[in-house]
Records
---
Amino acid sequence: MWSIAELADVAAAALIEEDRRAAEEQSVRGVDHLAEVELHPVLAAAFGRAGFGVERERRYPAGRAARRETEGDRCDLVLAPGGLAVAPAGGRGTLFTPAAAAGDGMLFWLEVKLAAQFGPEGPNGAWSADLVTRPRQDLRKLAREPAVRHRGLLLVIFSRTPAIIEHDLAIAVGRFADALPCIGFPATRIFPVRDLIGHACGAVSIVPVLAHASAGRAGGRGSRRRPRASDPRGGRASGVPEPGPPGRMTAERPVEPVVEPVPGADLRFDDV
């Protein structure tokens, strides 16, 4: 039903278009200036244009027992398969609810996280936390939801070079696999962006939490299976990624001058 490769393509195209729009407006702020919450409407609009039903800040099923609507964890983006709307939470329909609507079990639940190597003031000292610690917290939150079958993390990354993204993302995914019993292989797309604050490229990576993750320990070191054969594009993967390479993340090391700019023509939805 769901292809994370397709979702990654839509998300990457949305950020490319947002950066192009800012360039046409001659804005001094590129797509890499957006805060994490500012990415939500950009991504939601893109998924809607692609034909998915979209709801933002939907409350997780496990949190609906709370009396107040403001209580309980919420998911950043929830998608319905193409042609369907998102059914009201808890099945409470109205006269205006579309007949063709998808319930919790059919939806894809996406938590969005942002990691940028640089900010307007200079290098980001919280790069490791943004790339590993905070995303891992959201993956654990997703894994704790037994009623949610289709789920994943949408990680948006901006960096100086594609090599940094590939290296540091591999470390991050390895650490996710160490902490969680069942995450799948990610689908990643790398693309060029305007270099305004030190970033020459961006990426989106969707890390799925497999349907049987809730049966294990959502936050501990469980029995991790070795990966099986999977789609090389990361579209419908099974198994668990290998731990990432050891050592420090590249972006944590002192920043060296860029000798040559990254040629934009060489970056077209490359897979990691």
---
Amino acid sequence: MVQEIDRGLERATEIIKEIDFPTLPLYLQMIQKEMSHPFPSFPKIAGLVSQDMALTAKLLRTVNSVAFKTKSHIDNVLQALTVLGLENFYTSVLAESLRSALENHALSADNFAVIWQHSTEIARACKFLAELISKSVDCGVQVNANHAYLAGLFHDCGIPVMAARFPDYERSAQEATATGETLTAMESRLFTTDHSILCYLIGKMWKLPDSVVFAMYGHESEDLGYCGETENRELGTILRWAESSVYTITEKKHCFLGEIVDPLVLTDMLRAELGIDELVAQEMQLKLKQEFL
């Protein structure tokens, strides 16, 4: 098992180098540096983003969408930063930057649209569940909702990278689905790695929090051993729960949408990692369904 993981990491590292996947953009590095100050300058941060007109347009379109539920129309980057708050704003900029990086890789437009919509849905579900859990008196667990959102958003970012490196990847994924083979099993068989390992490496390249990076590693598996520490396991559990819940709510089927955890295994996972019993889990999932519908 350890040798397989090592081989997968080695091959994933080679793939990222072979397609020259971008590291964390300079403006995001500069924003991170400014955010580390005791009193970050909002005008300076807004100015860094505003230099990129395409990014600014995408960001304003996103923050004015229904998903953000802002009370008034946001007209500029500084206003977006003020309304959203620093951490939510950074997460939004990071999301748009990731999308731009992934759009440049060789996945068909239709399939990319499916994956991006799926990723944003899982991100929303992760954040919503993290907030419910943190507020619940039954759990006693505090989960960073922005970290949960990032785990959902980045959890399939390895798929466009696989497609960029291997021209027959999309066809192979469709054939695997037709024969009942899982996406990660096909990836490991044909390419000696899988997209969750690429997610882990991209997360590290883009300086995501450790809990996010380890939650994504092996996220298609029912084994939380990949996650390591308690905080990582909690986030990894939420990611798996969000995927299972969104599949159930939306009933979407696609060769790139991966596997879901067996319901009995998920029930045990929620109880062991988050202290959530089956009744509380059902109540939270109902609230999530109401949020999505």
